[in-house]
Specification:
The chain is an alpha+beta fold. The protein is built from 13 helices and 24 strands. The longest helix is centred in the last third of the chain and has 18 residues. It is elongated and about 100 Å long.
């Protein structure tokens, strides 16, 4: 029985010339996409051209409203290889536009192409990389009246100012498609939406996300009430919705919870030692102080241990609970403005990180606790503690931003961005990295050369110190960079250059190609973060 022919779709490609920074014309391969409202260029192509990147945040939306973003654009000048057509484009920069096109080698003999036409892409039939995507803004201006639709299983021939292009459905004899190619086709049609990044989305620019009224109020509250002390540390206020006067009493609940923890500690000597050491450090650093005054609105935070066996610094941490009900059914977290998400998503950070030849990772030590809480709000962060049941129970106030309060993530990240904005003139590159390449307290960044990476590391260290923050656990895939970092600031239990580390290999530029590798990287980055720099280290 004769097998049915297999249908494939050919996308329009063209070879164009692009002027580099020296004025030389360089051949690049472009995908013509009438469904995209934006022009794109790959990071690699932009670097080869020496194009100057400009800061430009462009939210992107694909099928099923899946969103992403890009943070830079470049201006390029292009010209046709077949005519005298030229144009200037502003292209958003992406790590990768799509996979090789076409997906498999196409036999030109079966397409019956006329001999007297000049193709925009003479090797359109060979799987090759795409460097540039030309969107609808220019696509429609390129079209010329001549078109050559042919009956039968042939793609449409369309004349353009770049030459003749081919697009549309064509059919192949199944005997000429090997097993690997068939599996590839099936995998592409069944792949997840995240993997469809390799095909290309119908991407369009979106308006900047609109913050809700409460999010806007939280931003305004921060701007109005945040100050810095003489040492540069930020002093913040808790952003409440309508005040905290209606909070009920929470001391009794916190007391019962403390007795439970105390009994647990008495049964486990090792746990008690770690717990006591943590609380003692909290007090010695001034992050909690004895509370002596009475009156006012108070809220007591129960506390409990969390464990991180892979941590290279503190295995046990104490966290505080601001979601404990009071006597009238209210709780502190419900009265706080949460604030908008103002950091970039991990996917975008990881994609950029992957393309740095020299990688750098770091962690902000005790990030939350480097930000001071205004004395008037410290009463809402009371805790009960004693290191031994034979001692009197004491009441303390937490003097810094506290992990466990609903507003803490926004306050901490907003302080970092405020620091970057205020010091941008003196530390332009470091300020950009602090805004763009940090996920909570973890930095995933890099540079083109060891020398520039060393400079970036030092500037980041200096910039953060101006706000009272300490960067630690520095790690790199370059030995020269590691040798330039003081030992006490390095991550000693991990290396991005370990030969047996699959994660390290993927993090190095060019080490993994294709959407499957990128998806694996992004899935593993959170695990990597927790092993090299503790997400909960900010508490």
């Amino acid at each position: 029985m004769r097998r049915k022919s297999i249908s494939q779709v050919l996308l329009s490609t063209a070879v164009i010339q692009v002027r580099d920074k020296t004025g030389r014309w360089v051949n690049c391969r472009a995908l013509l996409d009438s469904g995209s409202q934006t022009h794109f260029i790959t990071e690699h192509c932009a670097q080869l051209l020496g194009a100057q990147k400009k800061r430009k945040h462009i939210p992107l939306q694909g099928f099923n409203s899946i969103t992403s973003s890009t943070t830079h654009s470049v201006d390029i000048e292009i010209k046709s290889i077949t005519t005298d057509f030229t144009a200037k484009l502003n292209c958003a920069v992406l790590p990768k536009i799509t996979g090789n096109l076409p997906t498999t080698l196409i036999s030109c003999k079966k397409l019956g192409l006329p001999r007297n036409i000049q193709l925009a892409d003479p090797t359109f039939n060979e799987p090759q990389k795409i460097n540039i995507l030309i969107g609808v803004e220019l696509f429609c201006k390129l079209l010329l009246p001549e078109q050559n639709p042919r009956p039968g299983p042939y793609p449409v021939l369309q004349n353009t100012k770049l030459g003749w292009i081919l697009s549309g459905e064509y059919k192949r004899d199944p005997d000429q498609v090997n097993l690997t190619q068939q599996l590839t086709l099936l995998a592409r049609s069944d792949s997840t939406l995240e993997q469809q990044l390799s095909k290309w989305w119908d991407i369009e620019e979106m308006e900047q996300p609109v913050h809700s009224k409460e999010e806007q109020l939280c931003e305004q509250h921060f701007t109005t009430h945040t100050v810095r002390d003489d040492n540069g540390r930020f002093i913040v206020r808790l952003p409440t919705k309508n005040g905290t006067e209606n909070l009920g009493d929470s001391r009794e609940t916190a007391l019962l919870r403390f007795y439970q923890i105390e009994r647990r500690l008495e049964r486990n000597i090792a746990l008690k030692k770690d717990y006591t050491n943590f609380m003692q450090e909290y007090e010695e650093l001034g992050h909690m102080i004895l509370s002596t005054e009475e009156g006012g609105v108070n809220y007591y935070l129960p506390h409990h241990p969390v464990f991180k066996e892979v941590s290279s610094t503190t295995r046990l941490r104490v966290v505080f609970d601001a979601s404990t009900l009071t006597t009238n059914g209210t709780l502190l977290n419900d009265m706080l403005l949460v604030g908008p998400t103002i950091q970039q998503d991990l996917w975008s950070i990881a994609m950029r990180f992957r393309f740095h030849p020299v990688a750098l990772t770091t962690d902000i030590s005790k990030m939350y606790r480097q930000i001071l809480m205004h004395p008037e709000d410290q009463g809402l962060q009371r805790v009960l503690w004693r290191k031994d049941p034979n001692e009197d129970l004491r009441e303390y106030k937490l003097t810094t931003v506290t992990y466990g309060t609903a507003a803490a993530p926004f306050l901490a990240v907003k302080c970092l961005q405020e620091l970057a904005m205020r010091e941008r003139e003196n530390y332009p590159e470091a300020a950009e990295v602090l805004t763009r390449d940090f996920y909570v307290d973890n930095g995933l960044t890099g540079s083109d050369t060891p020398e520039s990476a060393i400079k970036l590391q030092r500037e980041l260290q200096e910039l953060l110190e101006l706000g009272g923050f300490q960067l630690r656990k520095w790690c790199s895939n370059d030995r020269k960079v590691l040798e330039a970092i003081p030992t006490q600031l390095k991550e000693l239990n991990h290396s991005l250059a370990d030969d047996d580390s699959q994660m390290a290999n993927q993090m190095t530029a060019g080490a993994a190609d294709g959407p499957e590798a990128m998806e694996m990287l992004v899935q593993r980055v959170p695990t990597y973060i927790t092993t090299t720099s503790e997400v909960d280290g900010n508490i």
